[in-house]
Amino acid sequence: EISMPRPDHPRVLCVANQKGGVGKTTTTVNLAVALALHGNRVLVVDLDPQGNASTGLNVPHHAGVPDVYDCLIDNVPLAEVAQPVEGIPNLFCVPATIDLAGAEIELVSVVARESRLARAITAHPEKFDYVFIDCPPSLGLLTVNALCAAQEVLIPIQCEYYALEGLNQLINNINLVRQHLNPTLDVSTILLTMYDRRTRLADAVEQDVRNHFGDKVLEAVIPRNVRVSEAPSYGQSVMTYDPGSRGATSYFEAALEIAMRGVNTGGTA
Ligand code: ADP
Ligand code: MG
């Protein structure tokens, strides 16, 4: 039994990349489950109107369910909308419903529009070891809210040809948020996803990313693995759907590295 250290203060990680389909949601769900299965108290905040993280964790998120929109726009406490994830003790999810689709526009005219999520998380009375915020594939106000609420940014990068394209824009946005809104925000973690070791391209992308981001890049790399993509249709993470699969073992390794780094650095808060 491998022991996973718990951080001595809550770590809030924003999982961001404005490109769609790079593995943000898959990474959020599987890291959250891995950490929760090893004794951490974990909250997933689904900040994508598509609600994929809610679906992946099998949390009800049909129209009418209290969701993250209510926290952002109507000041409803997170605790009132967080739902326990069935079968995974210590894991909770604030779902996204279709209501969230309007939030990007509605937020524009709201007071302190960039820090609504930060306020909601800070006001949360329960103690979590980790909060993961699953961002939509854009750099709009929802993602800005996530960047303001987090101490750390986790960027999943898909090992494909255009992997680094668009990353400058993301980094620029992170720098702007750091300068104006959240001075201690840190890009702490880069995770390579959907790695296909049969291709020389994947290897080249990995080298590029490691040269560029150095030790922010986790040693664990997530392979392309069909079990990972099957799991959500069973309302499960790959960690429970097929714990022995390469997808599950590599997400576990990534979770362990994240946990160890938090201990070694004393956290980034
Ligand atoms: P994002 O949230 O960035 O849009 P997703 O996490 O939804 O990306 O992933 C996009 C698609 O790729 C999904 O269908 C998902 O199941 C699939 N996928 C993600 N990671 C893997 C993987 N390691 N192996 C195989 N399929 C994957
Ligand atoms: Mg997603």
UniProtKB/TrEMBL annotation:
Transmembrane segments: none
Gene3D superfamilies on file: P-loop containing nucleotide triphosphate hydrolases
Pfam families: AAA_31
SUPFAM superfamilies the UniProt entry points to: P-loop containing nucleoside triphosphate hydrolases (SSF52540)
Family stated for the protein in its record: Belongs to the ParA family.
Biological function: May play a role in septum formation.
The name this protein goes by in its record: Chromosome segregation ATPase
